[in-house]
Prior knowledge:
By secondary structure, the protein is mainly beta. It has helices at 9-16, 30-33, 157-163, 176-179, 211-216, 378-386, 501-505; strands at 47-49, 56-65, 73-78, 86-90, 94-101, 110-112, 133-134, 137-139, 145-150, 167-172, 189-197, 222-225, 228-229, 232-236, 239-246, 253-257, 263-268, 271-279, 282-284, 289-295, 302-307, 331-339, 364-373, 408-409, 421-423, 427-434, 442-446, 450-456, 468-469, 471-474, 477-484, 494-498, 509-514. The protein has a seven-stranded mixed beta sheet, with no helix packed on it. Strands 24-23-26-31-28-29 form a six-stranded mixed beta sheet, with no helix packed on it. A five-stranded mixed beta sheet has the order 1-4-10-9-6. The radius of gyration is 21 Å and the shape is globular. Bound molecules: CU-O-CU linkage (C2O) and copper (II) ion (2 copies). CU-O-CU linkage is lined by residues 110, 112, 150, 152, 287, 445, 447, 495, 497, 499.
Amino acid sequence: MSIKTSLTRRQALMLSGSAVAGLVAAPLPRWAQAAPSAGLALPIPQLIEARSSEPVVLTLQKTQHRFGSGPAVASWGISASYLGPVVRVRNGDTIPFRVENRLDEETTLHWHGMLVPSHVDGGPHNTIKAGAVWSPEITIKQPASTNWFHPHPHGRTAPQVYSGLAGMMIVSDGADRDRGLPATYGVDDLPIVLQDKRFGRSGEVVYQPDMMDIMHGFQGDTLVVNGVIGPTAGVPAGIVRLRLLNAANARAFDLRFSDRRPFFVVAGDGGLLPEPVEVRRLVIAPAERYEVLVDFGDGRSVDLVTAPDAGHGPGMMPMMVPRRRLAGSLELLMRFRPDTALKAAITRLPKQLAALAEPDVKSAVAWRTFELNPMMGMGMMGMGTMSAPGRLASADHDHGDGHLQMMGINGRAFAMDRIDVTAKLGTAEIWEISAGGMPMAHPIHVHGASFRILSKNGGKPAAHEAGWKDVVLLDEHAEVLVRFDNPAPPKMPFMYHCHILEHEDHGMMGQFAVV
Length: 515
Ligand code: C2O
Ligand code: CU
Ligand code: CU
């Protein structure tokens, strides 16, 4: 396995690490500047407490939404004007869902991070035709964790998620209070969905990826949290739990607080860590979840900000790096305003959270290698095509014929009718993944399974990445130990793919059966 000699992500970060002095506000489109939107309250999505007796209804619809102080614009939502409700399920329950597709196109609804069999996973084979209803029953059998749901139709995941179709799903085991974790939804336990958007002149949401956007993933110039630009959350002046979800199509956020206060990671994608891990910055890649505790006990207002996405920086051809990504400036995500009148339920960090064994490497029955091919079809396309913005990649072109499946894994673009890997139910395997080619970070995700990161770029994973996960941000090379405890017959396989949604839609995805 050869390791590339270009700047590693870490080196690149060290080079840019001194540039974080002052907060520079991101340029907002004019309609958003007209009235400062920093006053808008953080929207708290409706909480649905799922029960076995009654279906959870999720309606995928076209609607209108206000992202800032400007007018409402066309958007998509799940039983909401944008994004969806937070669905809270209890471990051990079986929950009936009723997913209504009120769009005028086919979709699916995938339970990202849920350890369920493939026939209810909502992958590209579980299609819901326009106007149809899908009614899966899902048995919850996994640790307390923060997961999410989003569409996954073949070739159309990026535009559908970008339009607003995504929601959070919390698995609870009822033990958070005993652990000393904040657990009052909307008060000290907050869903925080991070995204970026491009808005047009009249505030409309724009999704018109050109070739560059497909190669890098489509990134916006305006950050939104829970569907609002730069919102403010009133919080108790104590310890607050943020359930962070990166639901952006392509951008990794490099989070920190404006006063550089420490914060504490308590859970990753697949559940709790053994103990809180102190950090001052946290990279969260597309589709990753981290739960963090922040102490607002000093009563001061503070901003959650992000540095540029280093995975799209040095090493790329300079002409391909959007100028704003080179600036080194911090951008505002949202503000927290502690309210001393609100009594804080939790004022101390918990010491111990959950048991977590060392990864059982000897349990692996197979070792497979995967190499990403971000530029597989580039040779045929040529520079002429690359400089024609918007043409090739308009959101409605037909992906079905495969001629635009220009990315792949192990030399092959995604195909609905090809099984790439067959694993044995109840076993574990080591998957070794390398980035191949462009020095760019790819968040790699596996369906219906959790894994432990064994190594990243030849080193150990950071402490906050050492728990159960289903996304690994791959910049050069990683090895993960994956457990296959959910069945997926060859007719209804699971997916593994890059969660840069433009990469996924353009072929950087494979299928595996678990039998
Ligand atoms: Cu978040 Cu294959 O999905
Ligand atoms: Cu998934
Ligand atoms: Cu990718």
